[in-house]
Amino acid sequence: MKSIQGINWQENKSSFVNNYDSLIDNLMKEYGIPMYFAKHLIDFGLYDRNTLARFFEDNPLFMTPPFLFKDMNRAISLISKVKERNEAIFLYGDSDVDGILGLTLLYRALKKYGIKNILFSIPEQNEVFGITKEKIELAYKKGAKLIITIDNGISNIDEVLYAKEKGINFIVTDHHTPHSKIPEADAIINPKVKKIPYSADLSGCGVVFKLAEALFLSVTKLYSENLIFLSFNPIYFKHKDGTKYFLNLTFTYISSLQIEFIQYFSIPVSRALYDKSMEFHEESSENDNPLFFSLGKVLEKESMKDIFMDLANKVNYQKYILIAENITTFNLLCDELSFDNQNLLIKNYSDLIENDEKAIENIKNYRPIYASSSLYSYFKFFVSVRYNYKKNIEQLLEFLPYVAIATVADIMPLNNENRFLVSSGLKLINEKKPEFVTQIISNLFNVSYPVTIYDIVWKLSPLLNSPGRFGKGNLLLSYFLNSEKDNAIFCLKEIIEFNLKRSNIVEQIFNSTRISEDRLPVIFIEKEGVEAGLTGLLASKFLSSMLKPTIFITKTQHGIYGSMRSKENFSSFAFISQFEKYFINYGGHPYAAGFTVIPEKYDSFKHELLDKIEKLPKILEIPTLFYTCELSFDEIQSDEFIYWFNFLQPFGEGFKTPTFLTQNVILSNPTTIGRNNSSTKFKATQEDITFDALFFKGKHYIQDLKLNEIAAIIYEPQISQNKISLLISDILI
């Protein structure tokens, strides 16, 4: 069978795992999951119990603690001072969906927190990405004492310095990959500056969501307390002269809900205490060679008693709150040390979460995420914080619809914490039906409740991003922040007009562009007079068509702008970073990057760029793509398939929709649809089962396609309200 697009299709059989077939069998037996979905999970590295439990977790208790961002308390302190002095804050977002929803979220969170004077802005017309000195001057003239960037700022070294010279404090919240040098801001909240477990791929809006949670918790009584979380780890070592038993103690000192410092001690204990502590411990550490396991500082009993005396003084006189991971182990240790703890005020961890057995069990699934026992202990502590401040969490979760849409629109991976944020946000959208979504649905003929990931990717994201493509992002910002319904609807109608304009222009440019050097491993395109905001869309469209990384550059009277898009195994950001000396600014992610070229350096940049492209390893002439497995339409329409397909949602970047191959399919009734008739709709039939099928690239192949020669189709199923349709990826003849 041969692809009409020249693609080499292969069934995916993950090479990074051993015992592939036995893993499939295990998932099928343990979870009752069908073979084809078990295979799909394994293809994305989801097969062990802990990983799967985290993947399906829907409880906000287990989100990454926001105070793991090292500058979080600095940011809260700066915002708190503005509140105390009744000063102004200036928010500066990006002009895309992620930046504007992030700004909207932070604006509403700051209002809830009690900030009265909030100014805001985003790039307008042909302003470059990131905050500019002109915007800082505007903030200064309006009396702002604090600037907070959203979805930008990590590359604005000179601009941050300029703000500091003006006497303005500066907080950067961003998620873009930092350059070799970062700005000297008062606080930087970016999961890529110091990698945050489980949260490295947050969207810009997701980063602000973390700041909002920290803000809401900063007004609680617990925030002003000093705490000590005491955890235990039983250890034994085998020696030629016998087995030695130890209890490793970790003292995590917490101030303003952030780790202040950590102490590790170990003490030799009796076999009886070791055995008893093991009853309450999650895992043991066995090692024949103590050099490979850190005991910390090993203390004799009298020295440990001194440590406990100091602990008692901190609790009884300095008003520290002491929490023991397991109070039974603590009491047994005190007995063995002959230490009187009768008057020591101590809280038992399990009591703080009301002995919730399910929560206690689910916490264990996150042990592999936190590299050290101290971080894991802190994570456990933070679960109890959320457990006891449920109202704070409830008001935070109101923002999840913003985060869900922003994360999907910015093409962030739907794994780790992002999966929870998106799935929970999507659930809230369909349960609460927020006004901003309902208004969109009432003005679009092709979207309805329940809203799906497909709707966000293909309908809402292009719509909401469209005004920013033309330097009119303020229109979208007005839509989200406008308190008057009539004004919001007026903004929405203009946004819809920009979306039509965007679609027509992109299609016209795409159809009129001829690639002269398609032999190169990276496609390079330059066009004059294209809106700077459309370069990313065009790069994506050519990437999808040519199946190669693509750079699209436009020259305008305002400047020279470019975007790069790529897929797995090729980082756009890493590639364009090589040309930093030619850029006014640049930024991005592994698969999407943007840049503004210094005009007088453009010729040199282009020469070096093409030279670097020429020297890249040649990509195979026939690209290889993978499908999950072969399936029949009878299996696709089964209740089992529909149940598990819905259960595994959401699909997206990082956890793709499964792709199947079906042979002996008849495609009939081809109909061109969409703007510019770019797509083709079919009836796809196998035996007596027929589905609607859509081929986005149909326009380019339908004229030469002989329907009676089709051997198979490769497609992604889509299910809406239990109705199945197919998105055709390719046709085999």
Attribute tags:
single chain; 733 residues; alpha/beta; OB fold (Dihydrolipoamide Acetyltransferase, E2P); inorganic pyrophosphatase (n-terminal core); Nucleotidyltransferase, domain 5; seven-stranded mixed beta sheet; 41% helix
Span between termini: 5 Å
Beta strands, count: 26
Query: What is the helix tally?
Result: 26
Radius of gyration over alpha carbons?
A: 28 Å
CATH architecture of the largest domain: Alpha-Beta Complex
Globally, the shape reads globular
| Portion in strands | 15-25%
Biggest β-sheet, characterized? 7 strands, mixed
> Would you tell me which CATH topology of the largest domain applies?
inorganic pyrophosphatase (n-terminal core)
Q: List the domain count as a whole number.
A: 5
Quaternary: single chain
Q: Helical content, roughly?
A: 40-55%
| Category from helices, strands and their pairing | alpha/beta
- Mean pLDDT, to the nearest integer, reads 91
Uncertain segments: 284-293
Q: What is the CATH level 1 assignment of the largest domain?
A: Alpha Beta
Describe the protein.
The protein is of the alpha/beta class. It has five domains: 8-35 and 624-732, OB fold (Dihydrolipoamide Acetyltransferase, E2P) (Beta Barrel); 66-220 and 390-397, inorganic pyrophosphatase (n-terminal core) (Alpha-Beta Complex); 223-385, Nucleotidyltransferase, domain 5 (2-Layer Sandwich), CATH 3.30.420; 433-507, no CATH class; 513-615, Diaminopimelate Epimerase, Chain A, domain 1 (Roll), CATH 3.10.310. It is 41% helix and 22% strand. The strands form five sheets. Strands 7, 8, 9, 10, 11, 12 and 13 form a seven-stranded mixed beta sheet that branches. A seven-stranded mixed beta sheet has the order 20-21-25-26-24-23-22. Helix 7 (157-165) links the parallel strand 4 (144-150) and strand 5 (169-173). The longest helix has 28 residues, at 485-512. The chain starts with 7 loop residues before the first strand and ends with a strand. The relative contact order is 0.10. Mean pLDDT is 91; it is low at 284-293.
